[in-house]
Amino acid sequence: MEPVFEHHVRAAVPALRPYVAALTGYAYAGEPPAVHRGLPSQYLTMVITLDEPLGVAWPGAPVDKFHTLVGGLHSTAVRIGDSPNVAGIQLALTPAGSRALLGVPPGELASTVIDLDLLLGRPARELTERIRELTSWDERFGLVESLLLNAWRDEPVPEPRAELGWAWQRLCETAGGVGVQQLASEVGWSRRHLSERFGQEYGLPPKVVARVLRFGQAVDRLKRRPRTRLADLAADLGYADQAHLTREWHALAGCSPRVWMTEELPYVQDAAASGSAESEA
């Protein structure tokens, strides 16, 4: 039987929007896809499962299973699945959200996945039990937001140096289109100093973040317009040619863009076409 995929997306309440880009609820009726890659992006990931633990595996590593998890910024795809989990809530956290909501700079979480309760303690453990008693997605989203709002208010965490926040914002605004030397000149630091401090704060050097941001643009473009020619996509996004685009996909996604489209794009499109829902808080 083909799986039926239920997919709900909602913007966070206004107080959380600097820290949470979106809340997504997912549920499969039937077996989930055999292959799903957690692709590098500009966001950290938080997941609260609604049934069985979720399996996560870094390349070449065994599967670890989590009822709740937080994953930091990363530059290689992780494999999601290898577990009976079929329902949960996923949040896209900004790096500022890592400090404000989880109490740690994003660099401490980079390229790793840990249990949410290691960061938020008993409230996170209680959330796992309470959220399974709820039946509506709005109630579930509201409970998660309450947990995060309480964490934000209880223990405010200092923000990073203004230069670092500014450099991150510049990279995002240009989708990775500004060079590291230019960034360094604009903040008045040496290139080496900027790269070191930026890497300490975010866990990835600015040059790698720029690659991830451009890759994210390519992913979004193929999701919206899957018939886009890869050569045109490469030209539009400033890759040297299609071969350059393909090399970047192998480095960041672990496969070619055509393999990703074949294995995962139908699932993404099905999510939009069948049980998908979106609302604003």
TrEMBL record:
Keywords: DNA-binding, Transcription, Transcription regulation. The keyword Transmembrane helix does not apply. InterPro entries: AraC_XylS_family_regulators, HTH_AraC. Coiled coil: none annotated. Signal peptide: none annotated. The keyword Cell membrane does not apply. Transmembrane segments: none annotated. Pfam families: HTH_18. GO terms for molecular function: DNA-binding transcription factor activity; sequence-specific DNA binding. PANTHER family: BLL1074 PROTEIN, HTH-TYPE TRANSCRIPTIONAL ACTIVATOR RHAS-RELATED. This is AraC family transcriptional regulator.
